[in-house]
Amino acid sequence: MLEQIPSPCYVLEEQKLLSNLQTLDYVQVQSGAKILVALKGFAFWRSFELLKPYLYGSTASGLYEAKLGYETLGGRESGKEVCVFSPAYKEEEMRELVKIATHIIFNSFSQWQRFKGIIEKANETLIKEGKTPIEVGLRLNPLYSEVSPMIYNPCSPKSRLGIIPSEFEKGVREYGLEGISGLHFHTHCEQDSDVLERTLGHIKAHFESYLSKMKWINLGGGHHITREGYNLPLLISLLKDFRANYRVEVFLEPGEAVGWQCGFLIAEVVDVVQNEGSVAILDVSASAHMPDCLEMPYRPKVTKLSNGVLEEDCGENIAPYTYRLGGNTCLSGDIIGDYSFHTPLKVGDKILFDDMIHYTIVKNTTFNGVPLPSLGVIKQNGDFELLKTFDYSHYKERNG
Known about the structure:
There is one protein chain. The protein is an alpha/beta fold. The protein contains 12 helices and 19 strands. It folds into 2 domains: 2-10 and 263-356 and 364-397, Lyase, Ornithine Decarboxylase, Chain A, domain 1 (Beta Barrel), CATH 2.40.37; 32-259, Alanine racemase (TIM Barrel, Alpha-Beta Barrel), CATH 3.20.20. Strand 6 (103-106), helix 5 (109-128) and strand 7 form a beta-alpha-beta unit. Helix 1 (14-31) crosses helix 8 and helix 7 packs parallel to helix 8. The radius of gyration is 23 Å and the shape is elongated.
């Protein structure tokens, strides 16, 4: 079957996605928290029918993600949440968001004051129609995060994300908190629950007097809940205690934990060249198709498919045949990494990059006119289905 999948192609494995969802639902049932899928990390919407029975809705970073979540997972009419946070909104975006959002979170008091009237007017209409009004929240910065590298740290010095404690106190004195029903904290990235435990200490140190005044607290994403070895009992205990102590509803909004280890990117070896070692040039790009390999940096696990035989990589310079896997763009640093195998790579061999469903499709580009990978799924019964392909028209439409 793998040899029949076109290259390049992102492939979702439904059974692995279901396993993640069942783990997330276990956390919900045991802790009482509500989990939303963060579309910034996982937006493979053709799989969202699988998400509906398990998750409470979606969380968006702006208008387009909010519309996608509303259209594919549902909104207040179907009992689902559409939670939106953006560092800054435009008026035309806000007028569209109030039609679909259940929660709107602001990054500053000034943005809240600017759009307060639009939300209040929308809520008047919703209440007249017997519908649940929009909840409003503020994102706060507790000045503590263990995220590394710094490019991913939302609490880095001079961060633009979240209201720092001193500015929050000034805002409360000037505007009060009438109309604010929730607070939002996002300080994690691929981290375990012990980090949440330490972070909660900083949240309480700066904002504890306000927590019990809220209806809900959103503890953001970056909780690596579905990773093997994650401390689920500690997470559940922390969430239960937090809900009980402050009598609030608690949201989590992971994206990566939803799509974690539930699919791969399949590529093809196009050429092998020599320059102080063997360099395999592929029909995929780190820069265009898996940018976390350069940003994080991140070294994905690789499996080689040659003549119907699968072989996992042995690491760097361990097995007899070592190759630098590179992309097909002009960027000299378009390098995925060095990998070694017990058998040689040849043109036409397939390369499977593991764990490539989250933070790939949502971030890919057509840099250099490189084609976007197709989208496919391995169904629960083991069959492969090709969902979408991309051609020249997609590149042209994105450039004018």
